[in-house]
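[audit] Reproducing an earlier prediction to check determinism. Same input, same settings, fresh worker. If the C-alpha cells differ from the archived copy the diff job will pick it up downstream; this log only records the rerun itself.
[audit] input (423 residues):
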Amino acid sequence: MKDKVVHESSQSDENNNEGFNRSSTSAIPPFNIPDVKSFDKESRSTQLVFSYQGGKKVPKLREPRNLYAFSKDKGQQSSPRWPSQMKILPTRPKHIHYLPRNPEPFVKPEKTSDDLNLTKLPCEDGKVVFNNEPGPEKYFLRSRVGGSQISNKPFYKLTSPDDCTLLFESRFECGNLLRAIKVNDNEYQLWLRNDLYTNKHTQWYYFRVQNTRPAVKYKFTIMNLLKSGSLYNEGMRPLLYSEIDAATKKIGWVRSAENIKYYKNAIKREDTTKDKCHYSLTWTCDFPNIDDTYYFAHCYPYTYSDLQEYLQNLRNDPVRSRICKQRVLCRTLAGNFVYTLTVTNPSRRPADAEAKQGVVLTARVHPGETNSSWMMKGLLDYLTSNAPDAKLLRDTFVFKIVPMLNPDGVIVGNYRVRWLAEI
C-alpha cells in the first residue's frame, strides 16, 4: 500500500514552524494490540511515515521539507536570527565581487630596529572610542530577528569638524571588533570579541573604519590573538575595502598594509591556567580617499545573508533550478535555516537514478573559514553550469551539499564554534 501524504504549507514563519507532511491513517488496516506500545514510541518522531508490506508495518524516513516561506519577490528566505541581547545595526554592509587582474604579492616582513618597540601591553591611558560588549549572559537564552537593533549612529561622537578620531564599527553580520582604544591621533589598539559564550577563539576579524584623513599613516594593533604562528609572518597582508573605490573603480577587497608584524605580547590569556600569552598583529596603512568608508578583514567575508541571496538566485534560474534542488535540512539553535542542496541531472529511469553514487560536500563548520564559502560558491557555479565535465559529473553522481553548517556562528562573527561553544 502506498503512503498517502498530505502537504500542509503556509507563508507565515510561525505557521511554517508547525507545518509538516502528515501521513494519512484512514486507509491503514488495524494492527495487533502488542504493536501499540512500539507504535506509540515510534510515532513520537515527526520524521517517520508508515506503510504496510505483507501485513507488516514498515517505517521509513519522511521526505525532506520544502523551503520555508520562500518567495521569489520578497528577498532572502529568512532574516538572520541573533541572540536577543546583541546590539545590531539595521543595515548590513554589502561588498562587490572583485578579482584582481594580477596575483597580489606577498610582502614578507623584515626584522628592523622597530621590533624592539613593539607594543606588548595595553595602553592604560588611552581613550575608548568603540566598545561592543555582547551582554552579561554566559549562555544562549533566546534569539530574535535582527537582534537588539540600534541606530546607525557611531559609538563615538565627534566633538568638532577638526576631531580626527577614527570611527569604528562591527555591529553587523560577521563583525567581531570588541573594543578600540585611541593611543594617539594616528595609533589604535584593537581587541577582538571572543567567540560568543567562550573566553577564547580570537583570530578572525572584520570591522569598519570612518573619518579617515588622506596623507596620514595610521597604525593598528590587534592585542588578543591566540595562534602562535601566522601567515602574516610569511607575507600575507590584511584585507582592505573602500566603498568609494568599489563605486567608482569597481575595485573590491585588496591586500593592503605595511610594516606587518605578528608576535607574542605580554598579555596573559584567561582561558588557561598555563603561563600563556596572547599574540598581536600590527600594521600601518593610509587611506587616500576623502569621506570614505573602509573595512578591514582577515579573509574575504561571506555572510549568512550572502548565502541566502546566492541560493535565491539559484532558485530563480529556470535552468539551474532543475538540476539543483534546495531543502531545509534543519533549524539551528537560534532558529536559522541550515540548507541542503541536491545537484544532479534528472534520470529517465529509476534504475539510472539508483545507479548513481553519492558525493557529500559541506563547508563553513568553522565560521572564520570564509574561504570555504567562496570555494563552495565556485563549486556550485561549476556543477550547475553547461560545461561538458559538469554535465558528466551530474550524470554520474548525486551531490548532496550543505553550504553552511554553522550559520549561527557565522552570523555573530565567531571564529571557530557555534553558540554552545563546542570545538
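[audit] rerun output stored. Observation attached for the diff report: Residues 1-39 have pLDDT under 50 and may be disordered.
[audit] end
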